[in-house]
Amino acid sequence: MIFATTPSQTVGPYYAIGLPWPDGPCVVPAGTPGAITLTGTIYDGRGAVIPDHLIEIWQADPDGRFADLRGAGPGGPSRVEGFRGFGRAGAEVGDGSYELLTLKPGRVPGPGRRLQAPHVDVSLFARGLLHRLVTRIYFADEEAANAEDPVLQSVPAARRGTLLAQPRAGGYGFDIHVQGPHETVFFAV
């Protein structure tokens, strides 16, 4: 028997079943020198937390090297012991928050070989979304590098603040607003 194609459905809320794993939120092992914590909350267009989401990050290490097992990344693979360059965290407690243990990334070449500011690439999956949302986390205390970053400079000045993580004790805070007056800038990739 041949069945008709069914319509697309939103992702989740099944993240806790198969996507998270114990080391997922740790881009580096606990105790890694220089490790920071990225924390935040995911909000919908009304300002309510999205309790069931999955956030993935991908980034370079502090020297601008990636966790590339084949050594094909710029400058070769990371030399940081245990650095994966990838992390995944879900809202397991249902309060819309996330927490990732990582290192502050270094600068990497971007469009036109211009150096990009330290940043973390982010994919967000949540109920109500047919496709992931893609954004970046830049660091508010990297003012000079941010002023030179070709991708960040392509964002209207009034919206750039939605991409800046703010320093907090032990790391940085970065909330993501899916819609609404504080909507985070998302990129079409």
TrEMBL record:
EC number: 1.13.11.3
Keyword Oxidoreductase found: yes
Record-linked Pfam families: Dioxygenase_C
Keyword Transit peptide: no
Domain Intradiol ring-cleavage dioxygenases: 38-66
Top EC class for this record: oxidoreductase
InterPro entries documented for this protein: Intradiol_dOase_C (IPR000627), Intradiol_dOase_core (IPR015889), Intradiol_RC_Dioxygenase (IPR050770), Protocat_dOase_a (IPR012786)
A molecular-function term among this protein's GO annotations: protocatechuate 3,4-dioxygenase activity
Annotated keywords: Dioxygenase, Oxidoreductase
UniProt xrefs under NCBIfam families: protocat_alph (TIGR02423)
PANTHER family recorded: DIOXYGENASE, PUTATIVE (AFU_ORTHOLOGUE AFUA_2G02910)-RELATED (PTHR33711), PROTOCATECHUATE 3,4-DIOXYGENASE ALPHA CHAIN (PTHR33711:SF9)
Family: Belongs to the intradiol ring-cleavage dioxygenase family.
Protein's name according to its UniProt entry: Protocatechuate 3,4-dioxygenase subunit alpha
Species this protein is from: Conexibacter stalactiti
